[in-house]
């Protein structure tokens, strides 16, 4: 088992762990949670032996193979498939040794290495790597592309694939779903559920943790606290424990009352549609677990513009895409005030393209985009963090938007997003991904939109910030269009879904569990279609190859025709020479020839016999030479 006893650790002057104890037994799957900066990634470095604790002991069974997901990818010209294959270091070592044995001609060593490769299932390595890449969303063509041709998010996926490729007794995954869409996240859940080893995963995706882990390790006041069960069980257990602490009781009750009041207001307005009922259940659950987040540092709201248009935005018969390539056809979508839509669909179907068209960043290829007079869009794109000014502070970002606002009002607002004290003056370039994401949301909220367009807003956000964002979005009075792989966020903030798939954007009546099953079926069907297409391609290639072979054989026969004709002629001459030689030998064997007076005839027959033998030998020599020429030509 993994055993931490009395572990203390300081980093950068901060005490992350203080006499912490933790035991994790083989085969357990544990979620590692805690606020940003509490030491989750540092714990992984301790387990990997990259750091030493200031005191205490860290014990891992000797001989355990450890797989670790790196957070950075060095620029590399090797293919994505080879990069992932490198994750199986034992396979790569055996392959390299086998190559050396083949070069040296060491047959015995080659046989040993082939046995070792078979023992570790090494011959299926490329196929397993290809399956991992397929599950993570890489196309067949992507697998041969060089690593340095992919964007940062896709390189992180390659690191995840490389970690999964490693045969491991212990797997350490740090934010594996951060750059995954929903279908890749569902695939990863299934893969990790089958993983037989010990798993430690840092994640801020509560539904992912619920599906994968059977225990939680929580960083609490420089200690490691273990909880049995998944993340939902942790929330319930922690809420019950906090409810027993008198100092927190009133604050907890206020939070619960606030949530219950919102649920009552929502229930009074909601219809009995399937989506509305599903959301009511989710909101009831949020009220129940609210005490578990009573000490969250984030408290904020999303104010909306006072004026509205109806509709705010309208797409009519819109073909959307890039250049001349339409990704989604004939979109009909009117967005009224207060409408809350979640966009669903497989990877690459056009969800982000639709969001960009709604935001006005992409004009429709045909049809129309009509916006209301009072439309105020708040757009959070997947790459929103790159638009931040690294040299500016959070305060300066807001001051540029509203120079007339007082510094105190701006500081109060930023405090709800975790920027308090002197942090409001720090350069954004030094912020973590989570801090940049919080700032981007703060800038968006400060502008008071009446339509929020959110494309994966939870990337880099920790669990507490996600919880705060969920509450804020649930109470936001404006319209919301949301793309997210965070199912908890979707379930608690939208009332309806639109499915973007097969070039269409159509209403989806099911809930997220229905969609999960639809998506798994869609991916199975896609793989079947790809497999059938590959079989047809292979069959066509085989047929083409046979035709090419027949054409090549005909060309070769034409090229070799003079030689084959000459060979046939020689064979005929050899047959005649052999017959003549046999006749001469029969006549020379006749006893009557030697009865006397026929010396000249005997001499003549002997000369003819010698001539025929010489001729046959010459023909045989020429026959051998031409035969060798034909064999050489056919072998080329």
UniProtKB/TrEMBL annotation:
Protein name (record): Probable ATP-binding protein YheS
Superkingdom to which the source organism belongs: Bacteria
SUPFAM superfamilies with a match to the protein in the record: P-loop containing nucleoside triphosphate hydrolases
Coiled-coil intervals: 553-636
Family that this chain belongs to: Belongs to the ABC transporter superfamily. ABCF family. YheS subfamily.
Taxonomic lineage of the native organism: Bacteria, Pseudomonadati, Pseudomonadota, Gammaproteobacteria, Cellvibrionales
GO MF assignments: ATP binding; ATP hydrolysis activity; DNA binding
Keywords: ATP-binding, Coiled coil, Nucleotide-binding, Repeat
Gene3D superfamilies reported in the protein's UniProt record: P-loop containing nucleotide triphosphate hydrolases (3.40.50.300), Valyl-tRNA synthetase, C-terminal domain (1.10.287.380)
Residues of the ABC transporter domain: 2-246, 313-527
PROSITE patterns: ABC_TRANSPORTER_1, ABC_TRANSPORTER_2
InterPro entries for this protein: AAA+_ATPase, ABC_tran_C, ABC_tran_Xtn, ABC_transporter-like_ATP-bd, ABC_transporter-like_CS, ABCF, P-loop_NTPase, Val-tRNA_synth_C_sf
């Amino acid at each position: 088992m993994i055993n931490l006893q009395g572990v203390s650790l300081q980093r950068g002057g901060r005490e992350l762990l203080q006499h912490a104890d933790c035991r994790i037994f083989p085969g357990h799957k544990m979620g590692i949670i805690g606020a940003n900066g509490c030491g989750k990634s540092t714990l992984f470095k301790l387990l990997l032996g990259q750091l030493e604790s200031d005191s205490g002991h860290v014990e891992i069974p000797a001989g355990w193979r450890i797989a670790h997901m790196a957070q950075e990818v060095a620029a590399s010209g090797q293919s994505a498939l080879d990069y992932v294959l490198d994750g199986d270091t034992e396979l790569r070592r055996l392959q390299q040794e086998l190559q050396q044995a083949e070069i040296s001609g060491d047959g015995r060593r080659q046989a040993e290495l082939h046995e070792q490769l078979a023992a570790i299932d090494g011959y299926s390595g490329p196929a397993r790597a290809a399956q991992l890449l397929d599950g993570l969303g890489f196309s067949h063509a992507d697998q041969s592309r060089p690593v340095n041709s992919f964007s940062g998010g896709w390189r992180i996926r390659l690191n995840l694939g490389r970690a999964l490729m490693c045969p491991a007794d212990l797997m350490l995954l740090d934010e594996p779903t951060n750059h995954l869409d929903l279908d890749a996240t569902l695939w990863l859940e299934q893969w990790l559920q089958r993983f037989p080893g010990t798993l430690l995963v840092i994640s801020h995706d509560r539904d992912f943790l619920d599906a994968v882990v059977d225990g939680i390790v929580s960083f609490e006041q420089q200690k490691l606290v273990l909880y049995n069960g998944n993340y939902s069980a942790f929330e319930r257990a922690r809420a019950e424990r906090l409810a027993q602490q008198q100092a927190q009781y009133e604050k907890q009750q206020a939070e619960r009352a606030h949530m219950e009041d919102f649920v009552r207001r929502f229930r009074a307005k909601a219809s009995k549609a399937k989506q509305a009922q599903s959301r009511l259940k989710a909101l009831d659950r949020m009220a129940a677990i609210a005490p578990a987040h009573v000490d969250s540092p984030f408290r904020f709201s999303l104010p909306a513009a006072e004026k509205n248009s109806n509709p705010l935005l309208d797409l009519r018969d819109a073909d959307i895409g890039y250049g001349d390539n339409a990704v989604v056809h004939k979109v009909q979508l009117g967005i009224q005030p207060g409408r809350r839509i979640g966009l669903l669909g497989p990877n690459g179907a056009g969800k982000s393209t639709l969001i960009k068209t709604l935001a006005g960043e992409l004009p429709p290829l045909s049809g129309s985009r009509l916006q209301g007079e009072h439309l105020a869009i708040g757009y959070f794109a997947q790459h929103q963090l790159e638009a931040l000014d690294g040299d500016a502070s959070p305060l300066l970002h807001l001051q540029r938007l509203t120079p007339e606002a007082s510094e105190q009002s701006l500081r109060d607002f930023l405090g709800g997003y975790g920027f308090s004290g002197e942090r409001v003056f720090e350069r954004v370039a030094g912020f973590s991904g989570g801090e940049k994401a919080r700032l981007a949301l703060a800038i968006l909220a400060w502008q008071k939109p009446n339509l929020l367009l959110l494309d994966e807003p939870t990337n880099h956000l920790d669990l507490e910030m996600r919880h705060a964002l969920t509450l804020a979005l649930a109470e936001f009075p404006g319209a919301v269009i949301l793309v997210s792989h965070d199912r908890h966020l979707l379930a608690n903030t939208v009332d309806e879904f639109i499915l973007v798939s097969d070039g269409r954007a159509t209403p989806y009546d099911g809930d997220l569990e229905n969609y999960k099953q639809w998506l798994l079926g869609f991916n199975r069907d896609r793989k079947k279609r790809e497999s059938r297409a590959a079989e047809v391609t292979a069959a066509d290639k085989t047929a083409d190859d046979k035709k090419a072979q027949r054409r090549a054989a005909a060309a070769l026969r034409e090229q070799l025709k003079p030689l084959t004709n000459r060979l046939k002629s020689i064979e005929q001459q050899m047959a005649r020479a052999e017959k003549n030689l046999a006749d001469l030998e029969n006549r020379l064997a006749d006893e009557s020839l030697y009865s006397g007076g026929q010396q000249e005839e005997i001499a003549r027959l002997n000369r003819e016999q010698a001539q025929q033998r010489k001729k046959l030998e010459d023909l045989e020599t020429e026959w051998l030479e031409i035969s060798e020429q034909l064999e050489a030509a056919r072998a080329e």
